[in-house]
Design goal:
homodimer; 280 residues; alpha/beta; 8-stranded mixed β-sheet; 8 strands
């Protein structure tokens, strides 16, 4: 795959890492960065995440052969619609948003002829934010999910797959709804649970929070605004995942209340098997 | 501090690391290892965690000036009582168990004159087990909690504090009950929550469990037997901590059910503040 101009909308951790990775493999002739935060964009350019900063979203996307939206999930659809009308025929638009169904529903029938949007979600990231934390190998060996719909052309899906593969990712195709249900369980619920746990720690016990507490709550340091938007976008699937978690907590509660050591050991053993299968 | 013979009962990750750390700083003239698993003891000796293996618990502890019990919490009190009767006057016994009140209650009035037991809990460890994972710096900069009671002499408490400090730890004194309530929240509840979450992951979604899921569930790989004993020993405090967690989960549930974005953002923001204050 070879891209003339690659435009990155939102050059934070993810967008900045896409720029670095694309540069490293020579994926694009020119990498443009755009977004709302002029200071952050200038940092991204200075640190070599993008070749050029373009302040106007429409201008930046109009010049693109491929544009990838790395903005909060509640901003993506609006920005795509706003900027797609000026795009040349054959432009591929994709994103890196953590939810997919809401975004794709919002875009249905609203793109100009010859411009494709294919939803993506690279499963990479960190509780850290900003282009200064970007790395060229953020996607290497990681999974990127690409979510075709009936509206997306096979050719556009194939280019999207090639795009993430060029950055080092493995790709899996899923429907947007299947993606959202899966990520509710593997990403959104863990964030909620980590936040619920972190919120319980009083300042006087901070010193007693060792590795276990730190690991278990690490993602609670993520940006509350981004995560509020993710929960709002994927509300139904998160509520379903939360209900399953509440059932499991109730099983632990029952085992504790009734001093059922065998039941507790069973729950812990089953969890250990799952966790061991994941590796470190 | 200088110890003639240091006996380590249970030479796994914690016991093995005590041996390595004590050797590095030249804390003892001789380090004995004992325990139920002869193969594991031999590994510990071969890897330099202890100088000598003694198969009989009583023999090993009788020779000690200081003995530290690094066995499961439901084994410690029995082993201490069994082996203390042969000890010489002035022997200091301590432990590394994750719960304290039950152990100290079980020992109350059951030690021979001139032999002191002071409860300890170094907040260090890992989901990994066995002497092969031991490291000499496991306790460096970590907190070790020492739990005096009315039965413990000031001199014995002072020696216990010096012991952990010699291995590089910082020491904090707490009552056994205060320790157990605090650890229920900072360690035992996180283990329960991580296990509840890990247990929900079906095999077909394993590939989608990225850094966030892995961090949040890492401690669920811990030994189910050890943790069942910890939960049984500290049942009341864990149930209390779990009730607080259930309340917090209910607050998230309410915010999701009512699409209360501000409420959700508040919960996430409060959690982020706590987590940020902990550092990485």
């Amino acid at each position: 795959m070879r891209i003339g101009t690659l435009t990155i909308v939102g050059v934070g951790l993810i967008g900045g890492s896409i720029g670095l990775a694309a540069r490293r493999v020579g994926l694009a002739d020119c990498i443009l960065g755009t977004g709302r935060n002029a200071a952050s964009l200038e940092t991204a350019r200075r640190l070599g995440r993008v070749d050029e900063v373009v302040l106007g979203l429409g201008d930046a996307v109009r010049r693109a052969d491929v544009a990838v939206f790395c903005t909060p999930v509640d901003a993506i659809a609006g920005q795509v619609v706003e900027s797609a009308c000026g795009c040349k025929e054959g432009t591929l638009l994709t994103d890196a948003g953590s939810t997919k169904a809401d975004i794709l529903r919002a875009l249905d029938g609203r793109l100009p002829h010859g411009v494709d949007f294919v939803g993506s979600h690279p499963l990479a990231g960190s509780e850290k934010q900003g282009p200064e934390h970007a790395t060229a190998d953020l996607f290497v060996g990681r999974l990127a999910i690409v979510t075709p719909t009936r509206a997306t052309s096979d050719a556009a899906v194939a280019r999207t797959v090639q795009f993430w593969q060029a950055l080092g990712a493995r790709v899996r195709l899923m429907s947007p709804e299947e993606h959202d249900r899966a990520l509710a369980l593997t990403s959104h619920l863990p964030h909620l649970v980590a936040s619920a746990l972190a919120g319980l720690l009083p300042p006087e016990l901070r010193d007693l929070a060792a590795t276990g507490f730190r690991d278990t709550t690490r993602i609670a340091a993520g940006d509350p605004g981004l995560w509020t938007a993710i929960f709002a976008h994927n509300r139904d699937a998160v509520r379903e995942a939360l209900a399953r978690f509440e059932d499991r907590i109730a099983a632990f509660r029952d085992a504790l209340d009734t001093a059922d050591r065998l039941g507790l050991a069973d729950l812990l053993t089953q969890a250990k098997k799952v966790r061991d299968a994941l590796g470190s």
